[in-house]
Amino acid sequence: MALNEMKDLKIDEKERLTVDYVKGILQPTPTCETWDQIWNFQAKPDDLLISTYPKAGTTWTQEIVDLIQNKGDLEKSKRAPTHIRIPFIEWIIPGIGCGLEQASAMPSPRTLKTHLPIDLVPPSFLEKNCKMIYIARNPKDNMVSYYHFHRMNKGLPDPGTWEEYFESFLAGKVCWGSWYDHVKGWWEAKDQHRILYLFYEDMKKNPRHEIQKLAEFMGNNLDDEVLEKIVHHTSFDIMKDNPMANYSSVPTAFMDHSISPFMRKGTVGDWKNYFTVAQNERFDEDYKKNMANTSLTFHFQF
Description:
Belongs to the sulfotransferase 1 family. It holds the Pfam family Sulfotransfer_1. Its EC number is 2.8.2.-. Keywords: Cytoplasm, Transferase. The chain has a four-stranded parallel β-sheet with strand order 6-3-7-8, sandwiched between helices. A two-stranded antiparallel ribbon has the order 1-2. The protein has a single domain, classed as 3-Layer(aba) Sandwich (Rossmann fold). About 45% of the residues lie in helices and about 10% in strands. It is built from 16 helices and eight strands. It has helices spanning about 5-10, 30-35, 35-40, 60-70, 75, 80-85, 100-105, 125, 140-150, 160-170, 180-190, 200-205, 205-220, 225-235, 235-240, 275-290, and strands at about 20, 25-30, 50, 90-95, 95-100, 110-115, 130-135, 195-200. Helix 13 packs across helix 14. The chain is α/β, with parallel strands linked by helices.
């Protein structure tokens, strides 16, 4: 076997990251090992934090925010891949990068990303009264999208079969914890802090309106031409073909798009292609029980 073939073989056989718990929340082990540094991260008053439960429209929102900041200048937003432009503060991939280090090296004003539930967000973000953007997605579509992301991403545990993953998600035994706790925690915090809480389904239905809302929250006024440009260039089909947004720059050893593309469908209601009748009934019962004590509501289809 040639040396380059051996190297390829080594990369292709790369093992998945292991996971452990941080304050009851499953996280990749490298995150757990540096938790004290993450928790003590020092935010600055002009930091902007984008937060979501995984696969709830994070990259989409990052691209929108970056284009708003660049006043619709596409070339500026193509300066680097998403994960370089907007550091993921708790994410550490050996050999790829460390979000904390990236964030610390960035000049202000910084735009940062997290998937942490509100209780685990470094306290300095709240103490410094930073602006935070939260995107929530209906749990059925979120589960399906997260399942496929697990399949292609070796930075996360193997999800097992769809049936097995359904049980794990329902029990909150997935990385970043329970979907219910995550969306409800941020929802309850939005009245005490500078949090703009948006919904994936609203962004799909009326992107122009939601992007305008985002821009206003960020303190930017967009004219109609710039707004339309941002709407167009952050549409699913355009972003799917944008190498600076579709994670194709990440080595296949970590994200294998042949298993499932990072940007897969971006639709509302895809869960109907996966949930059995029995799973749907069980999920609806679980949803009703867990959402009984909140004013938060979701749309599962248009």
